[in-house]
Please model this.
Amino acid sequence: MDDHLRNEGLRAGSLVLRPWLPGDLTVLLDAYRDPAIQAGSRAPVADEEAAARWLHDQEEGRASGLRHSFAVVDTALGDGPVGNVVLVHPAPGSGPAEVGYWTAAHARGRGIAPQALEALTGWAFTAFAGDGLVTLDLLHEVDNEASCRVAEKAGYGFVEVLPARPPWPREIHRHARRAD
Model:
């Protein structure tokens, strides 16, 4: 994949999707104080050490090409991140990739999550077309109705209910989107 595509920020309306930066640590800690973000997280962030480790893991994932996490900045709300979108990309030819997201509590209800997810989706299908990426999965617990709405708004249709598995203690909805 082109390094330019991997490291550049993406734009979608007033949103900028950019790599996470060390200076985002405080914003990350604040966001992870929200029980809704904690509940859906595979890597909880409870203190500065965990936040620094999370930021480092995002940088390592980007460098390896297997995880592309973007801080979502809504320029209409300021310069700091108000969310995250992530693409977890398996080895080429090994099946669908997975997307995820979260939005800070104070920024919810503004359409940020579906817009950021749509930008990430378009980027992923373009950046990894040469790897044969044609399907993206979005997973969330069955009782997370807000995530169902975000998935639908971003063109991820409901596919099936999966059994509970870590980190989710309840059954999981799988939504998917195929490349055009």
About this structure: The two ends are 20 Å apart (CA to CA).
